[in-house]
Amino acid sequence: MDKPFYVHRFRYHFSITKLLFWSLLFLSLIYFFFYHPPSSSDSSRRRLWGGADWEYRVLHSARPRSRAGGRVVLVTGAAGFIGTHVSAALRRRGDGVVGLDNFNDYYDTSLKRGRASLLERAGVFVVEGDINDSLLLKKLFGLVKFSHVMHLAAQAGVRYAMKNPSSYVNSNVAGFVNVLEVCKFANPQPAIIWASSSSVYGLNTKIPFSEKDRTDQPSSLYAATKKAGEEIAHTYNHIYGLSITGLRFFTVYGPWGRPDMAYFSFTRNILKRKNVVIFEGPDHSTVARDFTYIDDIVKGCLAALDTAKKSTGSGGKKRGPAQLRVFNLGNTTPEPVGKLVSTLERLLKVKAKKIVLPMPANGDVLFTHANVSLAQRELGYKPKTDLQAGLKKFVRWYLDYYSPSGKKSAV
Ligand SMILES: O=C(O)[C@H]1O[C@H](OP(=O)(O)OP(=O)(O)OC[C@H]2O[C@@H](n3ccc(=O)[nH]c3=O)[C@H](O)[C@@H]2O)[C@H](O)[C@@H](O)[C@@H]1O
């Protein structure tokens, strides 16, 4: 028997509604996943900072212990290796310190979180955010009158630049410009001390490397972005009167160090009985580095900050010439990578499984050696820790940190 007319009509409407419902659901899912990736949206990034409690923590951290003449320092890359040690040292002597770090996953983020917890206990709040986030930087400068910016946030590592070139441009060029842009409008403008690198000497063969030597032959994109930073610093100093000091660090090592660096990964591999690859130069020549211990670097950073003159601009305009400096901070005693390995073997009491390979064309240079006479004259910089003594402290920290009950050592 034929169904009544209204039954057909009802079925027809029902299937149209169903079709509409599923199409809308499908379209909204496409919109959600393709146009709204949850991890990269501005709003989700912004949720990491802001609010009354957050502001209180920033202001509390920024307060110097002695109100008269205390410095107030923004340390970018504060959860990084050098950033942690410098922040802790500034706080120990009574300066106001606010840290900033994006906690990216270039290496083990739990190590970065561990460093930030140490700083937290020392009275330094590490704001989670990116140097490319202008809103965040403006907010921080709106809350706090920073006298100095210690800009240590960067994409580090020489060889990784071949794998992820854009991260170097993003952090070391765009990020640095963003920091300087905010500093130029700040009132008062802060003095800026920032991390350049020994890698700017590139293919320079004149040794030891002096600040007067040529730096126009970078051998890696990492080096090129650090060299670009030095040129950018010149521009902001020239146009806006920002006082800027660049520090060329030479292969810095020590407790709470970077797992991507040779001394750290060699230690891990030796203990795990894995191979350790030692690069050699042409005709079996040794590759050497002017390995510099973290405590010497921290002293150099603090001296650079203490001798930095004030910026001269205001309201984004230059009012007079400002200080522009570059210093080598090295150890002055290059050591072959083979000696790094034999010292670690002795300290760890384990024989390394060594493999010697020709250095691949990966941006590495054969040799670094710092002439630090300028830093000695102007900053009173005098490195005191040799490789053996420095590695001993590193190994002690490493064994403690990675022991089952570890992760408690102080900076
Ligand atoms: O001084 C600097 O400017 C730079 O120092 C280090 O760069 P690098 O000297 O290459 O430090 P490591 O990665 O620890 O390498 C040290 C030496 O070990 C060698 N190496 C590294 C890894 C490896 O598996 N085998 C090996 O022989 C490298 O060729 C290099 O000669 C840092 O990683 C950079 O961020 C920093 O800017």
Summarize model confidence as the mean pLDDT. 92
| Residue fraction in strands | 5-15%
- What is the H/E string? HHHEHEHEHEHEHEEHEEEHEEHEHH
Query: Which segments are poorly predicted (pLDDT under 50) over 5 or more consecutive residues?
Result: 31-44
Name the strands of the widest sheet in spatial order: 3-2-1-4-5-6-11
Number of helices: 13
Per CATH, the architecture of one domain is: 3-Layer(aba) Sandwich
> What is the CATH domain class of one domain?
Alpha Beta
Helical residues, percent: 40-55%
Number of strands: 13
For CATH, the homologous superfamily of one domain is named as NAD(P)-binding Rossmann-like Domain
Distance between the termini: 88 Å
Bound molecules: uridine-5'-diphosphate-glucuronic acid
Helix/strand structural class: alpha/beta
Q: In this structure, how is the largest beta sheet organized?
A: 7 strands, parallel
Shape: globular
What does the radius of gyration come to?
A: 26 Å
CATH topology of one domain: Rossmann fold
